[in-house]
Design brief:
Length: about 600
């Protein structure tokens, strides 16, 4: 069998080279992830095949007389599920136990980030700042109630003890400095009116002490700061302060530190809960229809949250210095304390500061998934063995091999040596699937469960269907009297629409199943969707180009009886071969 290397096969050769380039690129990504990252050379396995870690979380309530209802427990389960799977398709199992506890099962060895996300009590709350100062005590300086807040890469301000915290207005195209700021979208570019001044209902000295003069009238009222509370706050050194021992009573002030320990705070009572946030997204500021280089976190509140937030920002906008700040407290630590540049009544706010895109995404994730209806403590943590194990995986792979052999056998019987194209295409699809799932294990934390293996096995039939549709279209064209080269192109034009339609139906079913299903069924849907896309890639960049090249060979193009494309065996209208892959009617002249 010879191949004519002429311009007619140039297009198919380019398509094959593109496919080879994709294979090499995926292989390089897998090897690179293994060499310089945490990747591996095989797909990650799920909880049912590899085992993992099981953690039992018990709710912690400040009032022992209060009981946890099922609605609160279900909400907490959903939030923890979102946290665990926030970094990929890990398929962790989160269930309730006994109407009180939550059981979290994570495949493999959980990362430190996953363990921290699960173990932390994580009640997200917003509190007004009463006082803020440097978090580390030094022998030569005394913390004061006001300070200069400068943004750090994590979006959390640090404080010096010389000048008051600046109140700034973001301008288009400028790099922001200073404390993070909450800005309504409509005012983010041109808020220039200076904030009015207001006096709290207590007096404050230069050292930050406050003398109560009346009952507090708001969460920003310095009347909350009693002498005992002031003394306790002044003595705090964040490097030695244990926030885990704090009693976080939402109706009382709270002394705490920032998560980077650079700043300490005296905060008022809770005014907005994390459950009042509907979404938090990190990105680049959009201004006048253009994307700037300023990284921000966009907040959207629920209808009730918008009312609360609007009332708070209206009050804070009329205050000066640290009293103008609104602290975001997660796990009793301040993750950010932005200043308030305007009264925000729309329920949409923007947190801006010296963010990187990574730190902004981290803050957005904390805001999005940080609000649990209750706190939890880790009761037990145990290693769990695979529920199915390697034996079931071997049986699943054996079933896949049997199915593959049946497809290959049918192809060779039905299409003779043309069936070898099916075999080579299936091998190419298997290699591409293996590399893709391995890379997704590192890039998206995807883990292959037994349900996922089932999805891969089902994809063998999906891929074989595409080949059958294409081959039958080619044979129909040959029966009509066309040469094989013409039949390949005409058959492809007709088969392509059918293949795309069938694969889109499979892909749509996989997407719907992934969105609506739970637990391991999502693994089946995910692998079915991935392998369906791979089927399209194989047919377009491998099988069709291979047929385009074979059509110009003597063996297939000449209609050899064992090629599977013999006009005589197919009952073609042409019966006499006149060379160059061309047939004519029996009575026609050569």
């Amino acid at each position: 069998m010879t191949v004519a290397l002429n311009p007619r096969t140039r297009g198919p050769r380019r398509a094959l080279l593109s496919f080879v380039a994709i294979i090499l690129a995926l292989g390089a990504l897998v090897i690179g992830a293994r060499t310089w990252g945490t990747g591996q050379l095989t797909p990650k396995l799920g909880l049912d095949l590899e085992g993992g870690t099981e953690m039992v979380l018990e709710p912690v309530l400040s009032d022992s007389s209060v009981t946890v209802n099922q609605g609160q427990l279900d909400q907490a389960r959903d939030i923890i599920q979102q946290r665990v799977n926030a970094n990929g398709v890990a398929e962790a199992t989160v269930t309730t136990q006994g109407g009180r506890n939550i059981v979290v099962s994570i495949p493999g060895q959980p990362t430190a980030e996953q363990l921290q996300a699960i173990r932390k009590p994580s009640q997200l709350r917003f509190r007004a700042v009463l006082e803020a100062a440097a978090g580390r005590l030094t022998p030569t300086s005394t913390p004061t109630a006001t300070g200069t807040a400068t943004g750090t890469s994590s979006g959390t301000p640090s404080v010096t003890t010389t000048t008051p915290a600046p109140a700034f207005t973001p301008a288009p195209g400028n790099t922001l400095t200073g404390s993070p700021a909450l800005v309504p979208p409509a005012l983010r570019a041109d808020t220039t009116t200076p904030a009015p001044t207001a006096t709290a209902s207590s007096t404050s000295t230069g050292s930050g002490t406050a003398t109560p003069t009346a009952t507090p009238t708001s969460a920003s009222d310095l009347a909350w700061v009693t002498p005992a509370l002031q003394a306790e706050y002044t003595a705090v050194d964040c490097t030695k302060f244990q926030t885990s021992e704090l009693v976080d009573d939402p109706a009382k002030p709270l002394i705490t530190c920032s998560d980077d320990l650079n700043e300490k705070y005296l905060l008022g009572p809770v005014e907005v809960d994390g459950t009042d946030i509907s979404s938090a997204v990190a990105g680049y500021r959009q201004q006048n229809g253009q994307t700037t280089n300023i990284v921000v976190v966009n907040l959207n509140f629920t209808s009730d949250g918008a009312k609360k937030f609007g009332a708070v920002t209206t009050r804070l906008y009329g205050l000066q210095g640290n009293l103008n700040r609104f602290a975001i407290v997660l796990d009793r630590k301040v993750i950010s304390a932005p200043t308030t540049n305007a009264a925000i009544l729309t329920g949409q706010a923007e947190i801006s500061g010296n963010f990187t895109i990574e730190s902004a995404r981290s803050l957005a994730k904390q805001l999005q998934f940080g609000a649990l209806p209750m706190s939890f403590s880790l009761q037990t943590e145990n290693d769990i063995s695979p529920t199915l194990g390697s034996e079931q995986l071997k049986l699943g792979l054996l079933a896949g091999l049997i199915g593959l052999l049946l497809v290959v056998g049918y192809s060779l019987v039905q299409y003779r040596l043309l069936g070898l194209v099916t075999v080579v295409s299936l091998v190419a699809a298997a290699l591409l699937t293996y590399l893709t799932l391995t890379w997704l294990g590192w890039a998206a934390n995807f883990r292959l469960t037994l349900a996922g293996v089932t999805g891969v096995i089902v994809s063998i039939g999906v891929t074989a269907d595409s080949f059958i549709v294409y081959f039958e279209r080619i044979r129909d064209e040959v029966r009509e009297g066309r040469t094989l080269a013409a039949a390949v192109e005409a058959g492809w034009a007709r088969a392509r629409r059918t293949i795309i339609a069938a694969d889109l139906v499979n892909l749509l079913a996989a997407v719907v199943l992934y969105i609506l299903a739970a637990s391991n069924v999502r693994g089946f849907a995910f692998t079915l969707g991935v392998t369906t896309l791979i089927d399209l890639l194989i047919v377009f960049l491998f099988t069709h180009p291979i047929m385009g090249i074979l059509a110009h060979t003597t063996f297939f193009g000449g209609g050899h009886p064992w090629s599977g494309l013999s006009p005589d065996r197919l009952g073609a209208k042409t019966t006499r071969y006149v060379g160059a892959g061309r047939f004519v009617d029996a009575g026609a002249k050569a």
